[in-house]
Amino acid sequence: MVLLILLIVLAVTVASTPLLDRLLGRNAGWPIAAVFLGLTLLVAAQAPQVLGSGEPLEFSRPWMPQIGVELHLRMDGLGWLFTMLVTGIGALIMAYSTRYFPPRRRFGFYFLMTLFATAMSGLVLADDVVLLFVFWELTTIASFYLIGLSGPSASRPAIRTFLLTAMGGLALLAAAVLLIVRTGTSQLSVILADTSWTEDTGFVSLVAVLVAVAVFTKSAQFPFHYWLPDAMAASTPVSAYLHAAAMVKAGIYLAMRFTPAFGDLLLWNTLLIVLGLTTAVVGAVFALQQHDLKRLAAFSTVSQLGFLVAVIGVGTPEALVAAAVHTVAHALFKSALFMSVGLVDIQAGTRDLRQLGGLRRRMPVTAALAALAALSMAGIPPLLGFISKENLFEAFLHAPGPAWFGPVAGAAAVGAAAFTFAYSFRFVYGAFWGEPRGDAEERTASEARPSFWLPAMTASLGGVLLGLTVPILDTMVNEVALNATHEAADAHLLLWHGLNAALGMSAAAVGLGALLAWRSRSGDALAGRDLVPVTGVWIFEFLHEGIVRVGRRTGDLTRTDSPAFHLGVPVVLIIALASVVAVVGLDLPPVAGQTAMGLDWLLVGLMAVAVGAAVVTRSRMAGLALVGVAGFTVALWLFFLGAFDVALTQLLVEILTVVVAVLVLRRLPKKFHRVKRSRTALTAVIAIGAGLTAAVGAYALTGRREISAAGEYFLGNAPEDTGGTNVVNTILVDYRALDTFGELVVLGVAGLIIIAVLHSSGLLPVHSSRRVVVGGTNAAYPPEDNTVLMRTVGRFLMPLLVLWSVYLLFRGHNEPGGGFIAGLVGGSGFALLYLAAPSDDRARIRLAYPAIIGAGVLVAAFSGFLGYADGSFLKPLHAEIPLAWGGYFHFTTALVFDVGVYLAVVGVLLTALNELGLERGEGSVREPEGFRTDRPSAQASGDDAPALDGSTTGGNR
Amino acid sequence: MTLAITIGIMVAGGVYLMLQRGMVRIVLGLVLLGHSVNLLIMSAGGVFRRDLPLLQFGTALTAGDPLPQAFVLTAIVIAFSIAIYMLTLAASGSDDDTEDAS
Predict the structure, then answer these.
(1) What is the DSSP letter of A400?
(2) Partner-chain residue, chosen from B18, B35, B91, that has the shortest CB–CB distance to A634
(3) Is 0.80 surpassed by the pTM of this model?
(4) Do A593 and B46 touch (CB under 8 A)?
């Protein structure tokens, strides 16, 4: 229950950020910090149960029962540790943010930070691999937006970070799918306890590599380490939280969580230890080279995460104890360091070491807290960092594999630790000691206010305090090691272990580090030099650009502006496929029942005449009319086939299509474009082939079985299930309402796109060949007089049509009618008004038709949400409403849904009439001469896309 | 058989128009093609039972298959919205030519 409360409180916090931001601006961080602190205390209060008696907290609720995925939360020692980090460090960062940012509203920041905290808590508490993956991706997304908040210069880093970590997410997804398929469950604790798959070496190796890729990308391990310094484009609180204390620890968490399965796998051990230590060394060397304090801290994070990954790779309970302690130590000292970078940056106006120096005299508190954090990082007693590093060294010496492997790993760790000491020294000495190197501003920097430095000081002192009282961590780390390895650990953390190998290694690291700091003039001798010829960012951009280029080349193969080519190729392929089938032959069952009736032939003849004429004619208007005749023939066919509702719809649609098409045709020339004779012949061949294919296919493949089982069901059960006897309508609004809802949205979107297209590219003026020129004295001239008949009829017919449409709407459930037909009838009423109007101005429909479309979709969606009262989206609810004159009216929410359909259809028709039928202002009417000139330019910009389109290819920025 | 022939005629006409030059003919071709596919769906439901699926008036034993009818009803409206959208494209920007005037 506690777990659910935790997540709900976090979710409520996320939801309340807009309000807090509006009321408090940047100070919204205070209440959020208070909430986080409260949650930290709540989690801490679970320690006696989770850590003391080793009973995890669990919570479970069905989520996607069909595929056995549950909302399963579980907090064991490991989850407890990481939840504490997320909420505890989160509280500090939120308090810090209130003073870091200038006094302005910070909605995006607080919203995303709390969202991230929620996702991260969910991630470490999830006991279901699907849930784990969802939260994992959510942290990636939050990170992307948080980096992107820093403005346009941060957009490429944000994209690079996102693509890389999302790739790791895909690896995790693949691992999750493999595990679910193999073990038949998605519950993480069950999967990890299952030994059947861990004994299959091939399978477990595959999963281990996939998980390792996820770990390496998320926790910035070599060769993916470069994203983390790149992500320093984000603001400092974001870096302190996501890229130091929390998100990058998600990889660490994942590696620890999967240790029970992979701990004994040599591939996993080797991969993690080798790449982890490589990262530790590389990150530490690069950190020493930085001028920018924040990039120094970022490379330092990379290096420290390398230590963590490597020690998890060792896989023994002792190693996991070391990992747990170092996770805590690192979260404290690294968040403190990042916050001190922010303090220096804000107070002194720069974080460049070449400008800074001697700040300790003017910012003594910041200097003290940064020094304490750096000492912890460098592994100096009595700080927590010393103890954790001792444990790391000890663990490396017992690395699995050949006998020489442990000492080599230990030596590498000592090397990385020596660099760690040197860059820690560089950080503190460069910024706070020595003489100021910059100009005026840095020389007059003053100490920050207590409310600004307090959070950083808290984190920094936490490292001191825990160092001095380290035995209180014993229970926690032993429990974590037990959870992570399924083997009991019996660690006793002490400041003084006596003279042993680890102490010697610590001393060696400090000694070498001091020597290194001295010889390199605290890193200045190395700083800024290119040690390697390429950067990770360069490689990423190179690969990214290459992939985009390959994609474009592939697209070039079929790129043409002629729609005929795109439309023709699939048709030819279908004909070819059909020919192959015709040659091979198929076993067909006999035709079921009578397929041709006498009257049908009449329709065949009608269709042949209509289509034949439509193909031959060169007049646009005639073409439209003939296709209309074909449409009416289809409507007759539908009547013949017993599809009364469908036929009605077809009939109405046909009329309205002609109305809309006429509005368009009067803006175009009378004749179609000419084409070459050879092309006419070729298209005729293709068309005849397609027609034959369709006819033979339709004859051979349909009508050879009895009515479908689904159809049988609907016919048999519709009245009982839905209370309606018009089976087609009940399918639309009851059984398959989601399909209809989707269609409704398509319809609405089409209406809105029509508006958008016409607003962006303008409507053609009425074509010169279609302007009717009559003299003022001609009887055909005055529009008022000539429309009298139409207007008089329309005035009476319009209300009747609307009434009739409403009637059709209401009876649709039982008799022919329903939302579509009713909407089309209502729309025809408006079309009549439009046609009868004597002038454009009078024809204008003054209803907010986009709003009608929107209302339709919303009403339909609303009726869908009502369905949740009885289980699921769009499930119709029924009620018998007693009528005054006796009897009952059967009310169903399906009717509300049909009202939505009605509104959307009417809205789209109004849109078409108003947008296409009326002349626009003079401004948007362009001269015909202009058309020819802007075509080549449009052409050119299409062809030149590779050169111009820098935004997708990136480029070396 | 008769329905299959109708479908064949419409597909031939639709494909022919669709492969011509000019947006309006492409739209008309697609409209014909849409009609023919709707009839094909109807045909898939079988054409030997042709009574209305209105249970107030008839019996379920001879009524046509309502499922393809529901599909087609949806399809008609979608095809309509796409047709008017494409007609809008034909009437906006420059004229409805889809190819270079070479």
Answers:
(1) S
(2) B35
(3) no
(4) yes
